[in-house]
Amino acid sequence: MNELFATLYGWLKSFYAKNLDEYLLGYNCDTGVYDNPLLYGHVGWLTVGISLVVVCLYYYVLNHPRFNRWWSWVLVLIGCAGINLFVGYFYTVTDYQTGMIGDCLMFTRDTAGGIIAYHIHIADCWMFGVANALMSVLFFIIFSLALKWKSRNCKYTPF
Amino acid sequence: MKSVYQYCLFILAGLCWLTACGGRTQRETRPADPSTTVMTPSTDSVRTDVQPVINVYLENSGSMDGYVNGVTDFERAVYDYLSLVRLATDSRMNLFYINDRIIPQGDALQDFIQQLEPASFRARGGNRGSSDISETLHTILQTFNDDQTVALFISDCIFSPGKGKDAHQYLVTQEINVRNHFATYIRHRPMSVVVYQLSSEFSGLYYNKSDNAMRFEGKRPFYIWLMGAPEYVRQLTRDIPNRIKGSGILHSFVVSSANEPVPYAIRVGSGTFELDKQNPRTTLKNLRLGTRGRDNNARFTVDADFSSLPVDENYIMDTAHYDWNLRDYTLTLQKSNISVSNFTNSLTFSAPRVSNGTLEVSLRMDFPTWIASATDSIGEAPQEDTTYGLEYLLRGVYDAFTHSDTASFAKLQITINP
Predict the structure, then answer these.
(1) B-chain residues within 8 Å CB-CB of A29?
(2) CB distance A113–B339 less than 8 Å?
(3) Is residue B204 included in any domain, yes or no?
(4) Does one domain contain both B350 and B240?
(5) Which letter does DSSP use for residue B43 in this model?
(6) Pair B129, B215 in one domain
(7) Alpha-carbon distance B331 to B297, whole Å?
(8) How many domains does chain B contain in total?
(9) Each residue's pLDDT tens digit, B134-184
(10) B399 near B257, Cβ under 8 Å?
(11) Best mutation site among A35, A59, A60 for testing chain B: the one with the most B CBs within 10 Å?
(12) Are residue B116 and residue B204 in the same domain, yes or no?
């Protein structure tokens, strides 16, 4: 399943820096192989979980005729995407700021150790958040179609 | 309704907490599989726990008298180099004179140097009229009883065919003998040989190829040989500075058998490609032309750790010493800082179009071009910067280490898949 998440996020990896993608795939600067945890799996499961919870809340907790319009559903979808945007951002920016990302992925250094190029920026963390938001839209739609049928007031939302 | 919202907020707060903290404990790097660990100098095979035994053989044939007549660069350089060797290794150092036999001189270095005078050479005995260099080297090789022995041989390396001998035939025979002696040795034990050329004042009798003596005052080259197990020779070439008192090292010649595989890896992000997830160090795929600015080439960089090689940085940094098979790619070299990147050098391959296949790169073990110009091919009169028969001598050593296909110090193989 983790590999599936890596494949899914791979569709959107052009949104952010290549080296951030390598980090999330588990590239280890010390060994030169992918023996670090596959972080796409971690964030993928979080995003799936959040999307699933929001879908369940909408259809079975909120479950109100006042909110069974298609635009209500869209608003909830946007809200879910917004949450997952910040999930993706904070997931990566925390590692970025605490130095968890390997040096070889972050920088190119000269022989004296001085940084001559940066490969990952804060903006890449935001863009990963955007990619994660898009991924949550996909999961939200899938869970909506799969789980809405038992909802008393929203089973025909969005269609 | 209010409870519903409170319920929702509670769940969302829990999810946010999970985002911030929940996966953190799983972020720890898995312990590296030793089989995949990129070697660093700290995990290198240098046997720093066992220091080598250093045996120093100083040729004391008659032709060497001119180097020790008075205080000369020869004495300064030899004293300086032997002192540095002793400081670098803290090893036991045994001192010998050598001509047709080995004459022990104890282990007191300072006394040894102070007694470097023609009179001491004469007094220590041995057949000082003989200078059969191949036999001298054979004698030294026979003293290697184990992998912990390192031999330093100091000589003018001049062949002396003698009167009435066919000099050319003599040199060819010597070359073959030298080759056979070393080839026989390295069949059983790995070895590196480093030969340094230095220069010194010379004041005394020079013996030409016919053993005719003639007085000479001026500069003459001499040589310090370093022979032993590759890891000890590497330790000495790495830890001892190239700048030795006196003339310093003018040129060097290096050969080595059984070189350890060199650690290397494709540098992530060094071009537009993807690393193969199964073999990311050696295999890349989907290499494409660059799209940044004027960089329209397909390129990638391979980082390598050449610290285990006995050759110096100048040799490694010369692209003329490299062979590679995919000639669409051009090679550029850069130094790296091993304390920063775990590697000593980077090799960047660049091509105007993508060529897939297996890129095989080798750092050749070349026969240095300086040797031909440092060889006196006539042997009648002393020259300031040439040595009679030098090329035959070092060619014999070189052939012993490279008798099969083109020998190399290091080989790298990179697979480029579509």
Answers:
(1) 268
(2) yes
(3) yes
(4) no
(5) G
(6) yes
(7) 13
(8) 2
(9) 999 999 999 998 888 999 999 999 888 777 778 888 999 999 999 999 999
(10) no
(11) A35
(12) yes
A108: buried, middle or exposed (CB in 10 Å: 19+, 13-18, 0-12)? Answer: middle
Chain B contacts to A (CB-CB under 8 A): 4, 7-8, 11-12, 15-16, 18-20, 22-23, 26-30, 32-33, 36-38, 265-269, 275, 277, 280-281, 335-337, 339-342
**B372 and B350 in one domain?**
no
Average pLDDT along chain B? 84
B123: tokens are 């007094």
Q: Considering the entire predicted model, what is its pTM?
A: 0.80
C-beta separation of A105 from B269 below 8 A: yes
Residues 6+ apart with CB under 8 A from A74: A158
Same domain flag for B77 and B192: yes
Span B183-192, average pLDDT: 92
B137 and B163 in one domain?
yes
Q: What is the pLDDT of residue A77?
A: 94
- Indicate whether B8 belongs to any domain: no
Same domain, B292 and B197: no
CA–CA min distance B408, chain A (Å) = 25
**Cβ contacts of B336 on chain A, cutoff 8 Å:** 111
Q: Token match 């053989």: residue?
A: B57
Tell me the sheet residues that pair with B301: B348
Contacts (Cβ under 8 Å, ≥6 apart) of A72: A157
Domain ranges of chain A: 2-150
Phi first, then psi, for residue B163 (nearest 5°) are -70, 140
Residue B332: give its domain's CATH number.
Answer: 2.60.40
Q: Which residues of A touch B18 (CB under 8 A)?
A: 46, 49
Average pLDDT of the segment spanning B287-316: 87
* Chain B contact probe: residue of A43, A104, A120 with most B CBs at under 10 A: A104
Q: Does the interface predicted TM-score (ipTM) exceed 0.90?
A: no
Which residue segment(s) compose the domain that B109 sits in?
A: 53-257+368-401
* Min distance A148 CA to chain B CA atoms (Å): 18
| Residue B215: count of CB within 10 angstroms of its CB | 10
Residues B315, B252 share a domain: no
Tokens of B404: 């099969």
- Domain assignment present for residue B69? The answer is yes
The verdict on residue B318 lying in a domain is yes
